[in-house]
Structure formats: structure tokens, C-alpha cells
Amino acid sequence: MLDVAVVGAGVGGCYCAYRLVGTRPGTGIALFEQTHRVGGRLWSEPVRAAPDLIADLGAMRLHHGLRSVLALIRHLGLAPELTPFTIGRRENLVHLRGAATRLRDVRRTPDDLIAEAAERLVPGFAELRRLQHEAQARRDPHRADSLLETFRDRRDRTRLARRPLGELTWSQALEFALGATAVAFIHDAGGYDVHYSDENAAARLDLIFRTPPDAEYLTLRRGMQSLTDALHAEFTAAAGVTHTGRRLVRVDKEPGEDHYRLTFAVHVDGRPTGEHTRTWARSVVLALPPEALRRLDPDGLPLTRRLRPALNAIEPVPAFKLFLVYPKPWWWRLGITQGRSTTDTALRQLWYGGTCSPTRASGPALILAAYPSGDSVRAWASRQDDLPHAETAWAPSEAMVDHAHGLLARMHGMPDLERPLSACWADWSRPPHSAAWHVRRPGHDLSDLGPRARQPIPDERVHVVSDCWTPDPGSIEGTLASAEDVLCECFGLRPPPWYAGSPSPT
């Protein structure tokens, strides 16, 4: 009999397992994972031709305003591994309608237009944001919280066509503020799907406000998976046990019993074997993607039914990453060393040098050649195979590689570009995740959703950890906030002394 079964070995599951095993010595804490690797959406693959180059197939960056994540990194001794992460450089390209322009020659960038829209939607946005982050830098939480509440009050009083921002999509709010032409430019040149997203406008403004102006971005030198690797190593060293190849099918509780029966389908190489295994635990933590929660057998505990309002409040965002390894960094010949270029072609975003430190001038070189998200993912459907992505990072189809290589050559005006040596990819729209991240839909109150997800069935010791119902969806920061809420409120733990806390619900 386990004391706690933690299901899902992403950052949320690894963190909960690490914290629980560290504060409950001698108890049985076990971690269960459907795939055959630990990390979830933190997935770092060394390049075969050059192991010092890392392809971050999942999360790839942090900014200095994410206090809890950075505090955890320092606590785990990973601070020396932090290295600057470059986004946009003046020499990078904006490629639209077949023509490439250097970023330095773009008069108003998508970021400029979004800042302009935020100011029109919430007058005084920029000044409040600046003051709030200055207060945080001075370690003045009372002043910072007061400024955040002032912003939220102004935001919530804004009306567009008599409707509050919380009932509108981000695309609708942008169109009110800037017009359709500007929104189309943001969509095409910004690299992310805007037109077809149902993201809540109020939630998006809140996220922008809490991101520092001119944010400095960082990554981990050996890949972001270093974080989950470190958590899992600590868990294992404290006698924690991990079972991979286990997909949770259902959770049951017999009348009068004080424990739960978990039924798992056994998977090998990403595919079900038809076999099942069971385990019993006094408490359960489900650190699972929303789509995995939806698929739980309804004949067990009615978790999915109880979670339905929370699940219906969020929208899955598909995305995938395709990395190519070239014999040398050909982009250096164009005066580009690193950073991001954007395009309205199927590539959408590309990152020179991949997601790691700047590539050497010679030898194998990595590029994140395609990073489409949202509706843009559809353009690649006919070029994909049917292999489960969670097990096959180094097996993109030849058609995908050929298409990406051809688009890169045309975009950069290099028709004789030498073919790549190898490629790797991850499609986050496939099971077990079925989405790269989630956004909150209009018309839903976050203050109601978080507690419902934390304990879906009153009086039952089955809890959900997820970034989806926090002020920071799609982030490690949001996942840590959710995990700490569950650990403190449901397991009676105290926040560790290094923990920086999280913002209040929006």
C-alpha cells in the first residue's frame, strides 16, 4: 500500500514526489509515467552529431520575473547552468509574402503594437507595469501587489461594445484597439496564432503585465530537462520509486475503504500492450495533462465529470518543434548568429542555433527550423507519420525534413543550401499531451476553477496539479504554484523557505 501515488512525471509530478518524499521519510511515495522518460514538457535531446548541442523539444526559456522557478533552480544547485537566451536581434528576419526584412528595418514590430494596444485598452498600463516591477525588484511586495490590483481594477472596468475584457478573446480586443490590418500583421509577423485563438483578453493582459518590461530571458545550458532530472534524482535518492510505461485508466474506491485502487494500462515504445496493472494508495496526485484527465474511465470515481467546468474553461493549443542539424551554421554568412526570425510560411518561427548557447562558426550546427502553433500546425499534417511522438524524437518523416529545408532555403535566398545531417522533432498535439499548452477561454472565473481542480471530489484525497488553472498557464511557474497549493492545503506541508510564492488569481 502506497502512502501517495503521483501520476505524471513532468515537472509537476516530479516536484510533488520530491517534496513529499523529502518531508515524509519512511513512507511509500511512487511516481507513475505513461512514457519511458521523465520530464513531461521539459524534453532536452543531445544532438547525435554534436552532443554538446541540445535540442529543447519542449519548454526552452525562462525570464527573470519567474521568481519561484529561479528559486527552485538555485535550491537544486543548477544556478551555474543558467545562460542567456536570445530572442530577437536586429539582424534577424521578418519574412512576409515572400520578402525578408531585417528586424532593425521594421518600423513597428508586433511587440510595439501589442504595447500600444495594452495602453489603449487599459490607460496607464505601461507606467503601472513599470512601477510594479520596480517594486518587485526592491523586494516591496505590498507595493507590487497594490499596483497589480490597481491594474486589474482598471482592466475589469474596461468595456468594449459594452462587454468586459474577460468576455472577449484577445484577438477581438486587439482588433478593437488597433484594427484588423494591425492584428493580421501581429499574427503573420509575431510567429504565434492570434486570429484563431479563443484566449481570454483579460488573462492575456494580466500575463503581459506580470512579465517584466524588457525581460531578460534565460535557459539551462544542458537543456530545460535538467530541472526535472534534478528533481527526479533527489526523489530517487530518497528511496522514491518510479514506474514508466504506465497510463492511468481509472481510479476506484470501494465503499467503506480509506484507500484508492489505480488501474494502469501497460505501454511499451509508446503503444499499449493490452496488459493492465493495479496499485493501491491512500492519496493520489494527478499531475496529468487535461486531455489525459478527460480520458479517465467514467465508471471509476467521477473525476472527469467533476472537472468538466474547469476543463471546458481552457483551450488546448497544438504546437510542434522540428530541429535540423546542418554541417555548419550557414546563417552566419548572412550576418546572423542567433535569435529568432519569423515568417508567414508553415515554418512560422525559427531559432538560429536552436535553443542552446550560440553555435560555433564551424562544425555541426543546430537550428529550430519550424515552430508552428495553433492553426498553423495543420499545414504539416500530410507530412507527418503515425508514430507516437513521446518515444521518437529522432524520427521525423522525410517529407517533413524536405519541406522545412526547402522553405528555409527560399526564405534565406540560398537555393543551393546543403541538406541537413539529421533532424528531431516533437508534436505536442499528439497523446499523451494532445496540446503544447492551454489558454483560458472568455467568460470563466479563475478563482472558482483553481479550488475545483485542486480537489475535484470533496472529501476525497485525489488532487490535480496543473498550470492550466493558475494565473500563469503554460508555464513552469504556474505548475509550481499549483503544486504548492496542493501540497500545503491538502497534505499539510509548509512552503519551503526558498519558495517565492505566486500571484493571486486574476
Give structural attributes.
23% strand; globular; alpha+beta; 7-stranded mixed beta sheet; 506 residues; FAD/NAD(P)-binding domain; 14 helices; Polyamine Oxidase, Chain A, domain 2; 3 domains
Explain the overall architecture.
- The chain has 506 residues and is of the alpha+beta class.
- It folds into three domains: 2-41 and 224-315 and 443-491, 3-Layer(bba) Sandwich (FAD/NAD(P)-binding domain), CATH 3.50.50; 45-68 and 77-88 and 317-427, Polyamine Oxidase, Chain A, domain 2; 105-218, no CATH class.
- Helix content is 32%, strand content 23%.
- It has 14 helices and 23 strands.
- Strands 1, 2, 12, 13, 14, 15 and 23 form a seven-stranded mixed sheet that branches. A seven-stranded mixed sheet has the order 8-7-18-19-20-17-21.
- A hairpin with a 7-residue loop joins strand 13 and strand 14.
- Helix 1 runs parallel beside helix 14, helix 5 (141-157) runs antiparallel to helix 8 (201-210) and helix 6 (170-178) crosses helix 8 (201-210).
- It starts with a strand and ends in a 15-residue tail after the last helix.
- The mean pLDDT is 93.
